[in-house]
Every structure is written in structure tokens, then in C-alpha cells.
Amino acid sequence: MSNVFVQSMAQNFEQALRLMEAGLHDCPDELWEVDLWPDEAPTAPAPHGGLHGSAPWFLGYHALSTLDYDLAGEFEPWAPPPPFDDNTWGFPNRAFSKPELLRYVQCCRDRARQSLDGLTEELAARELPSSHRYHGMLFGVLVGSLPLHVVEHAAQIRQFLTAGGVRVRAMPGDRGYTG
Going by DSSP bridges, is the β-strand pair 51-52/44-45 parallel, antiparallel, or unpaired? Predict the structure, then answer.
């Protein structure tokens, strides 16, 4: 379904992933494992295994793995690429490094491009299967919402960095952006 709508969606995915990429890239090592919300969401073992928290690495992992998973829509088998398959019930078993997460951004960029290239009217109108957490929602509606989740977490990371005195790179729409 190559039309203006899909081209617009592709642009939304690219902008969201660029924002995440910038937030992860700009995060200094000393803040990589510092929780944004230490009281509400400290990084710690999750009840059924793996880690849960609010450090920049975790928010990046969460946003990217959710994007990657949801692009499959439970219509096909899905597993995250290595090393992100090192998880327990979707919770990472260890902190991932900046280079690992930056590679995952590129993996998600490629997956989004591939998914949009294969998006047909019929596939977009398919209801998500009962095994998906949003079962019954139209796949096209889910795909349309995915960039927003990535933007949300990327913006949280960038705001955390800015509050910590880190100068983050300008993004399109920011004052001082030079392209």
C-alpha cells in the first residue's frame, strides 16, 4: 500500500526513531543506569524475572522491543534479535549497552520500513488476534500509534538529560537545528 498515508507513517517512524537514537546517543555513561523516577520505578528485578526500571537504557529497550514486537502483530512468530533475546517474559536479564541499543534502533528502522512496504489494505484492516494485548484492534490502527510510544520515551530521556545539565542535540523543530 504505497500511498501518501504510508509515506506519512514512514516519516513518523523515522522521526520517532531519530529522536530515540539522539536521546540514547546523547546520554553520558554516568547517567546510563540512573533511574528517571527512582522512587516510582527503580531498576530492580521484576516479580517473574528480568529487570524493570526507568533508566535511559531501560526506557530505550522497552520502547524499541515494544515497537519491534507490535510490528509483527502476533500474525507471525516473533523474537527479539540478539542480545535482546536475553530476557525473562519480556524483561531484560541485564542492562544493555549504548552500542547495543543504537544497533536496535537501526534494526527497528529496517523492520518498520519492511512492515510499511508490506502493508496492504487487507492487512491494515485485520483485527489483532486474541493472543495480542490489544486483541480486536485493527492492525493498521496499532501501527499508526507505534511512533507515539517511541517519541514518549525518547522525550522522557531527553528531558532527563537536559535536567541533568546535558546538552542534547537539536532535532528538527528545535531552535538551533541546522539539519
Answer: antiparallel
